[in-house]
Design brief:
Keywords: Membrane, Transmembrane, Transmembrane helix, Transport. The chain has a single domain, classed as MetI-like fold. It contains twelve helices and no strands. The radius of gyration is 23 Å and the shape is elongated. The chain starts with a helix and ends with a helix. The N terminus is likely disordered.
Length: 298
Amino acid sequence: MNSETLATPTRSSAESLLARVWRLRGRHANPQLVAGLSILALFLVIGFVLPRFAPVDPAVWNRLPRDLPPSAAHPLGTTSLGQSVFWLLAASIGNSLLIGLGVAVVTTIIGVFMGALIGFVGGITDKVLGVLIDALIAIPTLPILILFAAVFKGAASVTALVIILIAFNWPWPARQVRAMVLSLRERQFIDVARFSGQGTAKIIVREIVPHLLPWAAANLTNTVLVAISLETGLAVIGVSNLNYPTLGTMIYWALQYQAMFLGLWWWIVPPALATIVLFITLFLCSSGFSRTQGGQHA
């Protein structure tokens, strides 16, 4: 067996994830992933681009006449708080995605590298960090979040909420990555990397992490969904930061002012519908990435 053969797994693992995702010809087509990414791109435009063109700050109350139905001037009407539902919805989508993406990116990075480290090194490191991971997984997240939010009476910063979400979500990917790395470290290309004098950190970054990219993409989109759903749930029951417009806080204020009972359907239906569609979109992305990963190992 020559050096060219031994190097093949490394080059294959370093193949760009984007190239794998957009390999859409013939049997490589993944309509589920394409649909999810297309709708997600639309959400990103609505949430991060559209709010820049808002004539006024949509989060500020009493800027517009109250309870106006949808019209040319106000495409989705106005709220009982004097806000444009259209512009408020765009800002809320962006903020919800920002929370979800912030939690997901940091959680996935920590989980991947912690899981890769303990899985590759093993020994006492695996035992100590493994106990920590299992302990954090055993703690129920939602009651802790509700208790935290209740203590601060809904005035806790969004940053603090994000940090808590990260603290309780990184152990899940770390445990899964550890299991995958236990198998990867027995591969022949890892032995070649060891014999060539590469250190632990270099092997993890250059040889192991590229194999985990499809899984990491699926986990990232799934974690975005989990983070948004937790924040939305906290906001709907009134224990999140209610001054920060998100899909959850938008639904909360609509419920507080009895929008459905007063016939103000345009206030509560858009955020509820956007939340449902966003969850379906993230599920399509997550399952699409999972199928991409499964197709590679087939």
